């Protein structure tokens, strides 16, 4: 039994395994089959100031090595999120830290959701600022691929909340380190990466796009090497905690991210394949550490940065 | 709270019925006991990374005593092809029972089940647990798409068949049979499962006659648990657009036909 507990931007977590935004709903949906009291933290689906229908269907398709999605950030809006028993009131009883993922179409929207959550912050451990969704027409990735806009979003949110901020970076940039530095300078306490990669799939028989939105985000195993590389580069740029994700399916995958410099890892698509993977990954990290005689999970974080000599 | 399980279920039998249709029996005691008519299971395909997503199948029949659970599936693509060659003893990772199923058929008015293709699997437990047996209408493209006629008849149901090409039963659509049955029994309760155009037609018939109809809608699914919003369908709602997206996997797959917003 290694010590798996971590301190992530001031948040005490029993282990470094977190659910990725959009893959675990608002936690209640999976509560029958996943023991929430085993998880490091849960991240909930992105919340905006207004209710959002999201994109037309089809919204998901399987591709080799993963899946594409263009859900389009469907969500009930901040009013319902705060008041409806299925959302924040439920999340307040969840026996692990809760990260609330937020988004908007304008900088003011981000600040508005953050301010509303600041006023209701009981039971919220941190805000994850999504500046990187490829699936909405306005905002989203535009913020995540412009250094100044990215910093402006983070600053606007920082001004209205004392909650720890985790900024979710877009993989759709050449120099990820610049973005990591920019959002940290603007007041982000941690960063998370990567979001999905903008992609496309075509049904050649019907000459139709497999996803109604045409462009959709790639997630799953095929994303992993890209994500590991970007976590490694982000770690070279900043010292704040990193939540690494992208194609993690096993404890071995998770350990790869930790070695590249992530302090914690998030699991998305793998939950769809196997909700049981969350506990398997936690137990698998523990077993791996024991096998290698490593007493504390923090001891493997970023080791690849020392190993280069 | 709903009862839902993720279990590793050994295959008992996996056999071809005819053509592309197969029946799969597995041992899944907890799910078999909790299953309600119209619910489904979500099946993991073993070979990664070709298949990251599970495949949903309606629960056809269960035996709560010995824990057997059966589905009827049609081979339409790589996932179902993969399942079709699995041998008894192989373990399948399944989630279930998922979704909201059918309301029990009423005991005081007649009821009719309309099913297209493998849709007849989703409605079988409903007929099996009925206090007053429904009339069952089976439709398909041709004789090879008519399934479970014997199974429904052995429950004691009257079964009427329609095929597009007339190779079995009446030539025409299952909805034409429905109109005929409703002519005889105008106050019937309707339950239906099949392709979306058929369900829309059933919905229109029910609406014009002010009848209760419940329909089970087939949507491409991802999580199957209500978490990802992949499987949505437009449901009438108090919004400026007059509709909002509901999740087929957790708000459905069975909906009141009247609640659906047809584009
Ligand atoms: C609630 C529910 C209950 C279902 N019950 C049954 C059942 O009892 N028996 C049965 O045979 N099938 C059922 N289906 C459909 C079944 O899930 C699909 O046929 C299956 O997922 C196809 O997998 P595949 O890998 O073979 O096909 P793929 O290779 O993924 O696709 C092949 C073709 O099948 C189509 N397809 C994929 N998913 C679906 C879907 N969800 N519905 C319709 N077409 C699809 C694709 O558009 C494509 O043309 C049900 C679906 C839902 C949502
Ligand atoms: C269906 C789906 C919905 C998602 N929704 C969101 C979201 O609302 N907000 C967000 O920041 N990321 C969202 N993501 C991205 C994931 O959180 C994650 O960054 C990405 O999927 C990579 O991890 P994975 O390969 O483990 O899935 C979504 C991903 C998927 C597959
Ligand atoms: S398939 Fe995920 S919400 Fe229905």
TrEMBL record, chain A:
<feature type="domain" description="Dihydroorotate dehydrogenase catalytic">
    <location>
        <begin position="4"/>
        <end position="288"/>
    </location>
</feature>
<keyword id="KW-0560">Oxidoreductase</keyword>
<dbReference type="InterPro" id="IPR012135">
    <property type="entry name" value="Dihydroorotate_DH_1_2"/>
</dbReference>
<dbReference type="GO" id="GO:0004152">
    <property type="term" value="F:dihydroorotate dehydrogenase activity"/>
</dbReference>
<dbReference type="InterPro" id="IPR024920">
    <property type="entry name" value="Dihydroorotate_DH_1"/>
</dbReference>
<feature type="binding site">
    <location>
        <begin position="45"/>
        <end position="46"/>
    </location>
    <ligand>
        <name>FMN</name>
    </ligand>
</feature>
<dbReference type="InterPro" id="IPR013785">
    <property type="entry name" value="Aldolase_TIM"/>
</dbReference>
<comment type="function">
    <text>Catalyzes the conversion of dihydroorotate to orotate.</text>
</comment>
<dbReference type="GO" id="GO:0006207">
    <property type="term" value="P:'de novo' pyrimidine nucleobase biosynthetic process"/>
</dbReference>
<dbReference type="GO" id="GO:0044205">
    <property type="term" value="P:'de novo' UMP biosynthetic process"/>
</dbReference>
<keyword id="KW-0288">FMN</keyword>
<dbReference type="GO" id="GO:0005737">
    <property type="term" value="C:cytoplasm"/>
</dbReference>
<feature type="binding site">
    <location>
        <begin position="268"/>
        <end position="269"/>
    </location>
    <ligand>
        <name>FMN</name>
    </ligand>
</feature>
<feature type="binding site">
    <location>
        <position position="101"/>
    </location>
    <ligand>
        <name>FMN</name>
    </ligand>
</feature>
<feature type="binding site">
    <location>
        <position position="194"/>
    </location>
    <ligand>
        <name>FMN</name>
    </ligand>
</feature>
<comment type="pathway">
    <text>Pyrimidine metabolism; UMP biosynthesis via de novo pathway.</text>
</comment>
<feature type="active site" description="Nucleophile">
    <location>
        <position position="133"/>
    </location>
</feature>
<feature type="binding site">
    <location>
        <begin position="195"/>
        <end position="196"/>
    </location>
    <ligand>
        <name>substrate</name>
    </ligand>
</feature>
<feature type="binding site">
    <location>
        <position position="168"/>
    </location>
    <ligand>
        <name>FMN</name>
    </ligand>
</feature>
<dbReference type="InterPro" id="IPR001295">
    <property type="entry name" value="Dihydroorotate_DH_CS"/>
</dbReference>
<feature type="binding site">
    <location>
        <position position="21"/>
    </location>
    <ligand>
        <name>FMN</name>
    </ligand>
</feature>
<dbReference type="InterPro" id="IPR050074">
    <property type="entry name" value="DHO_dehydrogenase"/>
</dbReference>
From TrEMBL, chain B:
<dbReference type="Pfam" id="PF10418">
    <property type="entry name" value="DHODB_Fe-S_bind"/>
</dbReference>
<comment type="subunit">
    <text>Heterotetramer of 2 PyrK and 2 PyrD type B subunits.</text>
</comment>
<dbReference type="InterPro" id="IPR017927">
    <property type="entry name" value="FAD-bd_FR_type"/>
</dbReference>
<protein>
    <recommendedName>
        <fullName>Dihydroorotate dehydrogenase B (NAD(+)), electron transfer subunit</fullName>
    </recommendedName>
</protein>
<dbReference type="GO" id="GO:0016491">
    <property type="term" value="F:oxidoreductase activity"/>
</dbReference>
<feature type="binding site">
    <location>
        <position position="249"/>
    </location>
    <ligand>
        <name>[2Fe-2S] cluster</name>
    </ligand>
</feature>
<comment type="similarity">
    <text>Belongs to the PyrK family.</text>
</comment>
<feature type="domain" description="FAD-binding FR-type">
    <location>
        <begin position="4"/>
        <end position="104"/>
    </location>
</feature>
<comment type="pathway">
    <text>Pyrimidine metabolism; UMP biosynthesis via de novo pathway; orotate from (S)-dihydroorotate (NAD(+) route): step 1/1.</text>
</comment>
<feature type="binding site">
    <location>
        <position position="231"/>
    </location>
    <ligand>
        <name>[2Fe-2S] cluster</name>
    </ligand>
</feature>
<dbReference type="InterPro" id="IPR012165">
    <property type="entry name" value="Cyt_c3_hydrogenase_gsu"/>
</dbReference>
<feature type="binding site">
    <location>
        <position position="228"/>
    </location>
    <ligand>
        <name>[2Fe-2S] cluster</name>
    </ligand>
</feature>
<feature type="binding site">
    <location>
        <begin position="79"/>
        <end position="80"/>
    </location>
    <ligand>
        <name>FAD</name>
    </ligand>
</feature>
<dbReference type="Pfam" id="PF00970">
    <property type="entry name" value="FAD_binding_6"/>
</dbReference>
<keyword id="KW-0285">Flavoprotein</keyword>
<keyword id="KW-0408">Iron</keyword>
<dbReference type="GO" id="GO:0046872">
    <property type="term" value="F:metal ion binding"/>
</dbReference>
<comment type="function">
    <text>Responsible for channeling the electrons from the oxidation of dihydroorotate from the FMN redox center in the PyrD type B subunit to the ultimate electron acceptor NAD(+).</text>
</comment>
<dbReference type="GO" id="GO:0009055">
    <property type="term" value="F:electron transfer activity"/>
</dbReference>
<dbReference type="InterPro" id="IPR019480">
    <property type="entry name" value="Dihydroorotate_DH_Fe-S-bd"/>
</dbReference>
<dbReference type="InterPro" id="IPR023455">
    <property type="entry name" value="Dihydroorotate_DHASE_ETsu"/>
</dbReference>
<keyword id="KW-0479">Metal-binding</keyword>
